[in-house]
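Quick bug: LysR family transcriptional regulator output formatted oddly.
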Amino acid sequence: MELQWLEDFLEIAATRNFSTAATARNISQPAFSRRIKSLENWIGADLIDRSTYPVQLTRAGTMFLPGCQRLVREAYRLRTDCRNVAGESSAMLTFTSLHTLAMYFFPKWIGSPLISRLPLRTSMHAADFLESIDHLCSGQCDFAITYVHPDGPPVLEGGPFESLQIGKDRLILVSGADESGRPLFDIDGPESTEIPYLAYSWSDGYIGKLATLIQSRWRRPLNLSIVYQSGLADGLKHMAVAGRGVAWLPQICVAEALRQGRLVQIGGQQMSLDMEIRIFRRAGPGSADSDGLWQHLKQCAALPQYKNGFDVGIDAA
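Here's what came back:
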C-alpha cells in the first residue's frame, strides 16, 4: 500500500467526483482511477460506489474514512518528529519551483529584508510545472512556488494544501528589436502574414496554457507558425533576442532585455496576462522551521503593503 493511495481516497471522499479529484491530485483521471482500484484491491473491498452521480462511499468506504484520515495525519506527524530529532539536517527547508521562478524570483525573495531576517537554510529543485507539483504531493519538498491564474489550469485545488501569494508577474508577448528599437515582428499586420512563433514544448506546461488562453481572447486568430520549441522560458528569450520569432514570456525573465532594448513588448495589454506567484505547502503541522516560515509569511500577508506579495523589483516596465 502507498501513502498516495490514502491521499487519493481522501480526495475522492471530499469531492465525490473522479475528474475533480484527479485534477486536484494533478494526475490523469485514468491513473487516479487505477490508484483507487489498487487501494480497494489491497483492502479487499469496494470503497467507492461508482453507480451513482456524484459517487458515494460504500459502507466499507464510510468505515475506512476516519481511519484513513488518522493514518495520513500520523504518517506526516511521524515524519515531522523524525526530522526534528535528526538535528541540524531538519533545518534545511526544501523548495521546488518553475525554472524561471528559481532563477529570477527566488533569490530576490529569499534575500528580501522580511525573509532574510529568519535563520533559514534552503535548497531548491527547479523543474517544470507538473514535476514541481508532484514533488510537493509526494512529500519530497516542504514548499512549491509556481504561477497561478484564476482562468488557468487549477493548481492543487481541493486537496490537503494551503497557499499564500508572495509575488506577482505578468506574461507578455515580446519580439526582438531592430537597430532603431522597433519590433522585428508585429501582430497587427495582414492576417495572411505568418509570424514566427517560439513556443513552449511541453503540452501540459502551465505558462504554455496561459499563452493559449491569451490567444483565445484576441480579436482575430493569430497566424503564428511555430519555428522553435523549448521547455525553458530562458531558452525562448534568447531565441527572441536573436530575432527568431515572438514569444510569451514572464516579465521577470525579460525585464533586463526590455530595458536594454534587445526585446520589445508587442500587442499591448490585450496580449498580456497578470499572474500571481504563490507558495504552496501541505496543510497541517510540519517541521518547526517550515511552520515558522509559514506563520511569518501569513503575518506579512496580513499587512496592507504586502497584499500582493513581496516587492522584489519584478513589476517594472
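Actually, after a second look the formatting is fine. The longest strand covers residues 161-176. Closing.
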